């Protein structure tokens, strides 16, 4: 039995090396893909997991599979495509560690995962199924993702969703909005950013707009992240907000995924249905997730960058 199974993109993040200059481009290759970043955090904290994805038959694909196996994530369900290459994301960091992405994906192997390549017994053998929207941008991975989501719902699995909206990867932004909203309809637990809420609702009052989304789509537990400002959670009639932490970020690539991993870790540790989650539980989740997310920005990349549990326990929290 797995604690969590996820399906999604699997790609290379090319992150600027310390020696990077405008005259000499130097990059580090890191494991990329929001869902697998989430699994890497959970694996580091002792949870069992498996990843469903597709890579190219190339050096990057082999590198990704090896790194995932070394992180104690079941990589046996990562397929290899003989025609399309592994997707690459070129990351640009500004002086504050904030990142932007350029993608080499036309198509990438991750887009070519088919529903016939899925081992559905994985879904029967997990507590949680987690997904994002990058596997929904194109066919046939869209059909594969939706098929697994529906099967997970039929099997009464808890469904976790982080939209992870990347405008450059969508040919049609209205289609992106439709797919994110469809994801919300299936999800029990959602992590969504303030920018994504505004994209969906055209409302700058992000928290109240998120409350409306939670009501409309009957989402039992919804977290809204607001970058360094902190995060809010809407669940069981409670609305809580916690401020962010003061850190000097190196790279913010993994912050959202660390937050998502933290929420799922706390949910697994508390071992109770969402309907039984208390206000105190939610406060614990927010504190843990904010700490882990902020500390993850002190390392490059998003894979395996969450701090150890004992680091979080001794971390002195500083509110901004």
UniProtKB/TrEMBL annotation:
Q: What EC number(s) does its UniProt record assign?
A: 2.7.1.92
Where, if anywhere, are coiled coils annotated? none
UniProt entry tagged with the keyword Nucleotide-binding? yes
For molecular function, the Gene Ontology terms on record are: 5-dehydro-2-deoxygluconokinase activity; ATP binding
Q: Which Gene3D superfamilies does this entry report, sorted A to Z?
A: 3.40.1190.20
Q: Mind telling me which residue stretches traverse the membrane in this protein?
A: none
Keywords of this protein's UniProt record, alphabetized? ATP-binding, Kinase, Nucleotide-binding, Transferase
What does the similarity note say? Belongs to the carbohydrate kinase PfkB family.
Protein name, per record? 5-dehydro-2-deoxygluconokinase
For the Carbohydrate kinase PfkB domain, which residue ranges apply? 3-302
Q: Which InterPro entries match?
A: PfkB_Carbo_kinase, PfkB_dom, Ribokinase-like
Q: Provide the species name.
A: Halalkalibacter krulwichiae
């Amino acid at each position: 039995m797995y604690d969590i199974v996820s399906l999604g993109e699997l790609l290379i993040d090319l992150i600027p090396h310390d020696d990077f200059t405008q005259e000499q481009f130097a990059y580090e290759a890191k494991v990329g893909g929001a869902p697998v970043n989430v699994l890497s955090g959970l694996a580091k904290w002792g949870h069992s997991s498996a990843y469903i994805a597709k890579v190219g038959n190339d050096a990057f694909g082999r590198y990704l599979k090896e790194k995932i196996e070394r992180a104690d994530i079941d990589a046996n369900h990562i397929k290899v495509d003989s025609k399309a290459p592994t997707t690459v994301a070129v990351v640009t960091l500004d002086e504050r560690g904030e990142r932007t992405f350029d993608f080499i994906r036309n198509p990438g192997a991750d887009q070519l995962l088919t529903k016939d390549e899925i081992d559905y017994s994985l879904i029967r053998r997990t507590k949680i199924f987690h997904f994002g929207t990058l596997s929904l941008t194109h066919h046939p991975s869209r059909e594969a993702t939706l098929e697994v989501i529906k099967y997970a719902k039929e099997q009464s699995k808890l469904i976790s969703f982080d939209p992870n909206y990347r405008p450059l990867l969508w040919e049609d932004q209205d289609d992106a909005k439709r797919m994110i909203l469809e994801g919300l309809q299936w999800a029990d637990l959602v992590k969504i950013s303030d920018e994504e809420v505004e994209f969906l609702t055209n409302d700058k009052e992000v928290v109240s707009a998120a409350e409306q989304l939670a009501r409309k789509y009957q989402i039992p537990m919804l977290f809204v992240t607001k970058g360094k400002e902190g995060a809010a959670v809407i669940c069981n009639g409670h609305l809580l907000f916690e401020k962010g932490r003061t850190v000097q970020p190196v790279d913010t690539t993994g912050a959202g995924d660390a937050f998502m991993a933290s929420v799922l870790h706390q949910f697994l540790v508390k071992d109770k249905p969402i309907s039984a989650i208390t206000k105190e539980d939610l406060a614990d989740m927010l504190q843990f997730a904010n700490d882990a997310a902020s500390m993850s920005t002190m390392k490059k990349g998003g894979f395996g960058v969450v701090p150890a549990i004992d680091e979080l326990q001794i971390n002195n929290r500083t509110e901004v």
